[in-house]
Amino acid sequence: MIPMKTLNDGPQLPALGFGTYKLTGEDGIRSIVSALESGYRLLDTALNYENEREVGEAIRRSGIPREEIFVTTKLPGRHHGFDEAMQSFEESRTNLGLDYVDLYLIHWPLPRIDKYVKTFEAMLKLREDGLVRSVGVSNFTEDYLKRVIAETGVTPAVNQIELHPRFPQGHLREFHARHDIVTESWSPLARGNDVREESVVQAIAEAHGVTPTQVVLRWHVQLGAVPIPKSSSPERQRENFDVFGFELSHAEIASISSLESGRLWDGDPETNEEF
Ligand SMILES: NC(=O)c1ccc[n+]([C@@H]2O[C@H](COP(=O)([O-])OP(=O)(O)OC[C@H]3O[C@@H](n4cnc5c(N)ncnc54)[C@H](OP(=O)(O)O)[C@@H]3O)[C@@H](O)[C@H]2O)c1
After folding, report:
1. Whose CA is nearest to atom 19 of ligand 1?
2. Positions of the chain with pLDDT lower than 50, given as ranges
3. Which of 9, 155, 181, 184 is most exposed by smallest CB count within 10 Å?
4. Is the Cα torsion angle 264, 270, 273, 274 positive or negative in sign?
5. Residue 108 CA, distance from chain mean position
């Protein structure tokens, strides 16, 4: 059984999830069903991935009871604002074909638009109405988190951020830990770039009799972060899920973190705008 984390607003979040970006159409549905069959119970989507219908359909096809699956979706930049967020949620819920969403995130803060606090207030209303179980954010900096907490009195349950050995985000993870915010790691494998080919990762994999990708995902788990790797292949999905049977040493974790070189692309939350 996969370990669970208790969110600051109550629900239990699986310690590793499945990213669905780019999984669309019939092939996408099949990949998501296969992830569920491999044991994944946390699915990550977004209105902007244009695959919420596929996610909902995969859940129904899998035959797994709805309440055993933790569904996350995200609100896009074009829908910031209280009323807009309420409507956007309805659009996502209709796409998914679900009664409720487990975790609803603000996809990007868009500080220039300056509506993320109002947007978060709408999410709190959705939680109050029982349509959302947990409320969180994505790509928020420490300053944006502090402002949301100060102005609403509520600490987001999750901040989903870019996190991988090239960008370990030590300071922000410490802030999350102090405030009981769960860190979720997006692009946890650095989107398939060269991390798994690093000699340090390969040596650790050999020492533990696992694959380099499993070493990277285990590194996330031991940092206390929840990685959400995406894979279209059933074989790689199983490989990515099987990271709870070995333990990295502190020195191994530190050597993986020392691969830091920066963000994968220019996804700086202070300037990146996705609508
Ligand atoms: N909140 C945000 O702003 C944000 C931004 C980006 C992503 N996300 C979320 O994070 C999820 C994961 O990030 P991501 O999709 O960008 O990147 P990722 O999970 O780091 O990497 C995915 C890539 O790695 C390959 N891969 C997966 N497992 C592998 C394995 N065992 N061996 C070799 N290659 C493997 C995949 O190819 P195959 O499919 O061919 O296996 C795919 O090309 C997304 O799907 C999305 O849900 C959120």
Report:
1. 229
2. none
3. 155
4. positive
5. 13
